[in-house]
Amino acid sequence: MTNKQFYAACCGNEGGLFRKVFAAVPDSALDTRPEPKARSPRELMGHMIGHDQDCVELIEDGVIHHRNVVPFETVEEALAMYDEAHGALVDKLSGMGDEAWGAQAQMLVGDHVAWEGSAGEIMWGLLFDSIHHRGQLTTHLRPNGGKVPALYGPSADEPGHA
Which of 8, 14, 97, 151 has the fewest CB atoms within 10 Å distance of its CB? Predict the structure, then answer.
């Protein structure tokens, strides 16, 4: 299995887990924040949606014009946007060759080059960053009346589910 194939498998598997956490966020909690420096669920979800959109752009163009937060109104809309972005990423990955995976790429924030590396390196980094932010998002669930879904094993809210 190549590095790109392993990424595609991991990315595909993680998609359903991102979806479970997004779906567990109550609409009433989208703009809550436990303390001023913390991102709200809306900001976290918009950031993760943007990462998948960034990866699609990277596959298509070799450069990312980073989407820090993609706007949406409701959890249902965020789920639809995530499904579209993640589906496009999985689809584009299947047609991405090993040469493109290893090609030099950039992530721009405004006009600033924030990251340079191989396309694969940047895509792995964005997946890991999204997983990190998904963990942050789960900390918003219980305090706002949501339930933490089982991800890699059971949770207190979903015992026995994996």
Answer: 97
